[in-house]
């Protein structure tokens, strides 16, 4: 069945990457409709060699025959328009955080919990970029050994903040600290402040990792803590992940084999030859790269990992397109 697809937020960084990923993966759409705010309406975008004119998003946008709509237009737009689209039979895959913790909305990483797609009310949530790459690496370990506790420390690219964050770094590196996006200069700095601070002293980004990991792995007993940091890198998030297992494991070779065979993972772990995941190498690709695997000698059974992925592709656009690919298998 040919699919009619909509991209909402088509002019944004993730929106444009949706179009690139749809082309890279030759997604089988028949008609494609591109929507954005009034300000971006009229702009031209291309996909699979064809040019599309961005239309202003209105409630009537979904009156035409659309099967799936990929949203990346901010939480407010998703809160308003996802229910309208869903009520008209459109399946929405939303990249904003608006619906992620809604109990009626599946939060899905296709390599990790595709079964969650079995039951939805036409709104499906794409997890936060920093969560997606982490759970792809954790899933095989969770299944093999059970997980007691996770400690996340992230080193997140400025593209996670969109064009404003990108520009702050670009200009900052030239000595112009605009601070249009961040409260401090990002060039030459590390900011332990992504999104807003909450009552418990964590940031929203840190609690997203805690809450989303539990929902995706379907285990509310998981003990998780996180520190998320913005670093002067343009693309790809890097993460130190410390994992305490329920069961013991034989040796690191066993862990490496598990990860090397895991869905969506590429093992890069040969420190003697300076081989470990790097943000620059991950950028523009879809796998989750894992390395620096070593036993945590302070635990009965635990390891440390270094996990890197392109935050705009696998962390957002590619994961959403993979959800759409999974959905159309049953259409
Ligand atoms: C960030 N993960 O990196 C958040 C949203 N993209 O800013």
Automatic annotation (TrEMBL):
Chain positions recorded as substrate binding sites: 156, 230
Record-linked SUPFAM superfamilies: Glyceraldehyde-3-phosphate dehydrogenase-like, C-terminal domain, NAD(P)-binding Rossmann-fold domains
EC number of the protein: 1.2.1.11
Catalysed reactions, semicolon-separated: L-aspartate 4-semialdehyde + phosphate + NADP(+) = 4-phospho-L-aspartate + NADPH + H(+)
InterPro entries from the UniProt entry: Asp_semialdehyde_DH, Asp_semialdehyde_DH_beta, NAD(P)-bd_dom_sf, Semialdehyde_DH_NAD-bd, Semialdhyde_DH_dimer_dom
Span of domain Semialdehyde dehydrogenase NAD-binding: 4-120
Tagged with keyword Amino-acid biosynthesis: yes
Positions with a binding annotation for NADP(+): 11-14, 39-40, 159-160, 311
Broad enzyme group: oxidoreductase
Record flagged with keyword Amino-acid biosynthesis: yes
Top-level lineage group: Bacteria
Active-site residues annotated for this sequence: 129 (acyl-thioester intermediate), 237 (proton acceptor)
Positions that bind phosphate: 100
Keywords, comma-separated and alphabetical: Amino-acid biosynthesis, Diaminopimelate biosynthesis, Lysine biosynthesis, Methionine biosynthesis, NADP, Oxidoreductase, Threonine biosynthesis
Molecular functions (GO terms): aspartate-semialdehyde dehydrogenase activity
Pathway field: Amino-acid biosynthesis; L-methionine biosynthesis via de novo pathway; L-homoserine from L-aspartate: step 2/3; Amino-acid biosynthesis; L-lysine biosynthesis via DAP pathway; (S)-tetrahydrodipicolinate from L-aspartate: step 2/4; Amino-acid biosynthesis; L-threonine biosynthesis; L-threonine from L-aspartate: step 2/5
Quaternary context: Homodimer.
Family assignment from sequence similarity: Belongs to the aspartate-semialdehyde dehydrogenase family.
Function text: Catalyzes the NADPH-dependent formation of L-aspartate-semialdehyde (L-ASA) by the reductive dephosphorylation of L-aspartyl-4-phosphate.
Protein name: Aspartate-semialdehyde dehydrogenase
Organism per entry: Fusibacter paucivorans
Taxonomy of the source species: Bacteria, Bacillati, Bacillota, Clostridia, Eubacteriales
